[in-house]
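Figure-free illustration: sequence to structure, shown twice.
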Amino acid sequence: MVQLHDSPSKSPGGNSKLVQSKDGEDATSNYVSSHNSKAKPEHLDSSDDQNWEDYIPEAPDGGYGWVIMVASFFNNFILDGIAYCFGVFLLEYSQYFGSTLAATSLANSLLCGVYLLVGPVVGALVNKFGCRAVGISGSLISASGFLLSSVAPTITVFHFTYGVMGGIGFGLMYLPSIVGVGYYFKKKRGLVVGVSVCGTGIGTLCLAPLAKIILAYYGWRSAHFLIAGLILQGCISSALMRPLIARRPRSTTLTGNGAAGKRVSDDLPRNGHDCNGEVSPKEERMTLISGSQTASGAVKDPYSLRNRQRQISSSSYIAGSRLVAETNSPADNIHGSAFLTGGSPGGPHVSTADLSRPLYRKDIFYSGSVLNVSPVKSRLSLKSYVASIASLPSVQERQSRLKCLNSLPKPMADILAEMLDLSVLKNKGMMVLALANVFGMLGFYIPIIYSSSRAVSLGVSESNAALLLSIVGIFNTAGRVLSGSLSLIPSVSPLLVNNICLALTGLSVLLTPLCQTFALMAVASASYGLFSSTFVSLTPIIMCDLIGLEKLTNGYGLLCLVRGITGIAGPPLEGMLYDWTGDYGATFYTGGAFLFLSAVLHCLLHLRYFKDQTVA
């Protein structure tokens, strides 16, 4: 591991100078002209006093961010609204293909599981190509999958087109929605994330009864054409995820010919780096050389790389707490892998393009307000709210990766290596959290898939059966807004809220077989929708408390894999119980027991034994 140690005093030999052009042009005019020319991404050496932190976009906490929130809301509306109304079509699919309930439910299990399972790969793509391009691609792929599923001749082909293709496309739309909101908001992130994920509940509320009407009048094949058209609207919402540009440069010291130093005005043109990791064609290039301080005593940039070297050690985290080191630089929130572009005698290089890539941000998956991350909340500044620890992978560490990763572009290889790193499971708390998610996801989708068909089997009308899913959507929306608001309160324990709600979710599913009338079924559906909302929204905050912000991306990637695999396996397993017994009771009892067991495992995380650890 390459380590940079704190340097309290300024190094005397690190003054940087802007190299003048051969024809003697003024340094400032050379700066402006190079800005307006098409240039390759700039690389800044670690020995230079370049104000490289100017290349890091800062979240506006508003402005165009509200458009990003609406776009994220609409993507969630499409993704989960379609996935959660599968129960309306379940019996139609089963009758058409002549398949068992378990085999039929596998299609939606694949859809929900695959779009979580591809999370690490999608993260790598977003870091390289950006939220906008990845989201539009996902919309096109999933719409194609639904169109092809409408002509599927067998249930196996249906599994591939509906489940695998649809799941991959949904995954490409889902992650950019999370990343976009995380990049545009800091203080208000908890509330904004809560509002954006309300698209899940609103989508279920609206699409479940609509799907029933379309199914009754046009059949499931025509319904798939209409659903594909709705998915294509995701191209519009994804296109709205406009790049985030670093708009407020700090002044930069210029020296030359021994003259007194002068500073470039803050209103000089800036390069456009976006939250998608793309670099504007007009990116500026500043050629810097390291030299000694001039006789004029030019003022050095206090934010220079040399003067702001940081110790790189994840042991500085106090695990089990949101207590992290406080610093004075927005660059401290960037993963160290963003800084290394290759070894050189002078040390690692800083790539200005990489500094703006979204998944190099340590807090990109943190779903709460970052005000809760600082140890001294009254002294918090948005430039210094996260840890000062950044890990620069050594050459040996990069070489130890799988060869297939090293053959990928660096922004993709770094994120894949980070999100698939199993070393985070050395943390006992993270291991328990992963195991709890295994059982939680085995039972999570049971009410969504089987509530409607169970109601029909008990004599409830098909329109009222579809209404049960709408009730889930209404209360799920309320729960997500409430959990987002709670995350803004520092004194509220996200783990405690999650555990209580998860236990009540399991209890509501366990009691569902006892509900024989529509009114009681509606109460069970409302309880499930309200309490299950925290299981997804509070997990990143809980994970941050366990393993620290530095490892949050790593933990999020592994939980995507865990949830994806178990999400695929859960509904078919419970569906097999119905096929064997002919009774939905066994299905709901098993699903509820899995959720309750997950709540018990989450309770273990309150023990100090699982808290006070560090992740190397």
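We now fold a second protein in the same way, so the two outputs can be compared directly.
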Amino acid sequence: MKLSPNWTEGETRAQRGHRAPLKASDRSVTRASGAWEVPAVRGSKLSFLSWETPLPAPSFRGCLAGAAMQVKKYLVKGLHRLQKGPGYTYKELLVWYCDNTNTHGPKRIICEGPKKKAMWFVLTLLFASIVFWQWGVFIQTYLSWEVSVSLSIGFKTMDFPAVTICNASPFQYSKVKHLLKDLDQLMEAVLERIVAPEPPGANATRALNLTLWNHTPLVLIDERNPHHPVVLDLFADNRNVSASGSPAPGRTCNAQQCKVAMRLCCHNGTVCTFRNFTSATQAVTEWYTLQATNIFSQVPTRELAKMGYSGEQLILACLFGAEPCSYRNFTSLFHPDYGNCYIFNWGMAEQALPSSNPGVEFGLKLILDLGQEDYVPFLTSTAGARLLLHEQRSYPFVKEEGIYAMSGTETSIGVLVDKLERKGKPYSQCTANGSDVPVHNLYRGLNTSYSIQACIRSCFQDHMIQNCSCGHYLYPLPPGEKYCNNREFPDWVYCYSQLRRSLGQRETCIGMCKESCNDTQYKMTISMADWPSEASEDWIFHVLSQERDQSTNITLSRKGIVKLNIYFQEFNYRTIEESAANNIVWLLSNLGGQFGFWMGGSVLCLIEFAEIVIDFLWITVIRLVAFSKSLRQRRAQARYAGPPPTVAELVEAHTNFAFHPDTANHGPNPGAYPDEQTLPIPGTPPPNYDSLRLQPLDVIESDGEGDAI
């Protein structure tokens, strides 16, 4: 480095408060605040020669290091503050709070005399208890998540509902007769046995196919002796068996004297139960339905749809508003209970149709041919059309929610719309789309929306598969599973009957399924009249017969004709909406009102109270830490039999291994150290102090950077 010839005299080294005096031989170069200084001796004064040099710009790493040092400094100061604590005792802190709080009662406890202090203490404690009690009541009310229901009426043009129409008979008897031949023969024999007082002959019994019968037979239970009821087999030749299993020869019984029941068995007939009925009509209908279910479950759905009523057969005439329509405007859906059903305005592939005006002339008008003469005689005992109004893209649960339209009548259905809007969690357990329901929706494969009916039936089918190893014919089937039938699952009827009567299963499904948060309900006003009238019956049937069969003869009858009128009564719709009965504003208002009324406080008073609680906890923690330290020190001191050794003795014992402490008695208490007692060795050895050792004279540490000269 080359020095500039222009020397600038500075103040002497001794005059600088932050510099130490330099020796004459010290010629070190120092740098401060961007200027290099070289000490120079002139006379008796030590002067500095300096020259300016530019400082390099601070690097990014240096900035980070500086910031880290600042953060560390603040953390250390904060740690010291935590270790120090508030600096008060419990009593001082309590007095300070009562003297400075904005709550009215505690101030009077400090300022008044002894008697008034006691009075104000009792009043403050009483009113504080009332405040906390009221707060608990309001918070409990808020957390109950109650709702209030509001009803509002709107007016607008609305979409026409989806209309599902089914025939009461799921199949045409002429197309399923070959499947039900053996079952129908059994049914006729059962009816003859129930009605006739004497059992049938042996030849008639041998002509029947008893394969279906042996799985689930009907029996007669003779209860004329209630203590010893007797079970009579319908097709056993005088082989009567009592309820306890003992034979009862020579006993005969008819329906007037006995009750008809269904015997359900499992495990090859070792476990049996009886399902009783109050009427033989109910018994034989239920039995026939179970046996028909066993038969139809083994036929593919596509084949079953061909055996039902086609849309062209069912729908003779259609008119929506002023626009003509036909069966081609309906979507076909196979329903296990009603066969082929047809849905108008379902909204699956097309836009939902709006209704331009309320009234019959702007609604849907239909004429249906039920074909009652081709009903299955033992499977369907009701004649008419089953229909349901529902939302677009929702599955029609016709059996549970539908209504009947009687044949030979004109049925007018006026519709009113109710929209339900439920609050979600935590106010209710409703669901928006069923994604949070722990039940696999088996109806989702039809691209339909969620409903609680779909959830409950999917849950039942899931339990059916788990308990019976097969699915019921009336519900959709998960992939890889089979429908129940007597050939592969002989015990399915017993299992299904037990599951259907199980209250636990129903409660489980109801608990798992949730209602939809948004729902639309259609309220119907139904009126009926005979149609057609006697005066117009002839020409109406002639025209309809010509249009359907191209025949001049009448091929229709009043028994199979239904006319439907479905329309909006008015465009007013009701919205039933749930809202929170107690919101957060209500809660804060009541909490603040009670606190201000009883104690004259506010939110700031609560902050003050929280502050003193924190200080109390702070002091408690510091005292516990100090107590634990003092306890450890006392335990360490307790290990010495006499007074602890001096520092000089500990250091000498650590550095000089030949040193033996003086065991002579010293001090005012000569009996502290007995002659035979040795000095105990402390638990922790003293540090090895380098300052007590001798260093060579030629090693001198410098004041600056610690370099040795």
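Summary for the second example: The chain is about 35% helix and 20% strand.
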